[in-house]
Amino acid sequence: MSASEPNHQNETHSGLTIPDLSGAVPTSVEARAKCRIAALEDELQMVKQERGTKQRKTNYYVAQGRAIRCMVVLYTSLEDLIAENDRRYEEGSEDATAEQERLQRGYIALVQVLPWLHDRFAELDIDDCEEMLKKLKRGADAGHGDNTSTLKDLIAAWVNQDFCPSYILKSNDKQSRGFMHDVCGKLLCPAKWDWGNDCMKARIRERTMDYIVSKNSWPLFMYENYSVSSNDLEQGLFKSKILVQAFKATFTSPSSTREADGDGNGANILENNRHAQWALNQVKVKMCVCFALSSVSSWCTVDGDFDYKAFWNNIVDFFEDVPGPVAQHRVNKLLEWWTRKIFGRNHHEDLTAEVVSHMSITTLTEQRRMLEDATFDSD
């Protein structure tokens, strides 16, 4: 190749000279800016997608966590439940304390309510697991706060409607409730004490040594018709109207509380409904009713001499730590009663083939067949 011939190997079709491999191809400012803008747009899109995915995960965990305080535990931390299950897996369950038994029952309830939880722990690293637990607890606390606030308003309306007190309860006033209010005091009074006795009522209000209201007594509001048999303290326990109303308001809808007066003697349509049984076993509504009737303005663990956490354990133990099969049978019957109360009657077993044969759908099917046969015969 002569020196006068053009060097086509070092030129592009556009006339740009391509330097050797150690140099940079000259480009315009506009071209470089467009490339940077395109790269930034791609990066921004990826950030938005990651943020959207993270937000969806956050929303999911928070939403799932709302069930924890209702269906699993009211006070115990999730970390304590997980730690107890891990301890049992490594050391066994021999010589477990009553508190450890409660923790394990709580963990079993947790994985039943959130069946995906165990697999998620196996998939995520430590930091992601901690973040997931924070979001679950955020949802649990939010759900608990919403339920407590709702029942605070509703219980005021139920008390006013059913008892017609001389001093009407206001939904936004907690200070006027508690033992200073005659109806609230009656419902909160230990069932074995006579609130109608003015002397006893005064001593309860003064919190004298002989009349200390603590977690060791069942309040009257837990009993059917708000009355108790001193010879059989289990009779009517956990069957009061206000508990049924609170349960329905929490687990179905506030409007369903208008049906709390049903006799509850229908067929047990959901005998194996674990949702209903676990919700009752965890008995959160009983704690919220107790809080709503009290004069305490904000949720706390201890109110004077009354320890809510210990009271919670007493209720859970009633259902889960039974002394034997006879007591377990009574607990099962109580759960069946609650299932009927919440979900109503069902007469499916009464719909025999004979009964169904006279109903309109079966009758219409037969009429259409006969009309079809008549048309065919006429042709």
Q: What's the helix and strand layout?
A:
Elements: H1 29-65, H2 68-71, H3 78-91, H4 98-113, H5 117-123, H6 126-163, H7 182-188, H8 198-206, H9 241-251, H10 274-282, H11 284-293, E1 302-303, E2 306-307, H12 308-320, H13 325-343, H14 353-357, H15 360-378
Helix pairs in contact: 1-6, 3-4, 6-9, 6-11, 9-11, 10-13
Description:
58% of the residues lie in helices and 1% in strands. By secondary structure, the chain is an all-alpha fold. A two-stranded antiparallel ribbon has the order 1-2. Strand 1 (302-303) and strand 2 form a beta hairpin. Helix 1 (29-65) crosses helix 6, helix 9 crosses helix 11 and helix 10 packs across helix 13. The chain is extended. It starts with 28 loop residues before the first helix and ends with a helix.
Describe the largest sheet: 2 strands, antiparallel
**Distance separating the two termini:** 100 Å
Number of strands: 2
What fraction of the residues are assigned to beta strands by DSSP? Answer: under 5%
Specify Rg, calculated over alpha carbons: 34 Å
For the largest sheet, list the strands in their spatial order. 1-2
Short structural summary:
The chain is mainly alpha-helical and 379 residues long. It has helices at residues 29-65, 68-71, 78-91, 98-113, 117-123, 126-163, 182-188, 198-206, 241-251, 274-282, 284-293, 308-320, 325-343, 353-357, 360-378; strands at 302-303, 306-307.
What are the key terms here?
379 residues; two-stranded antiparallel sheet; 2 strands
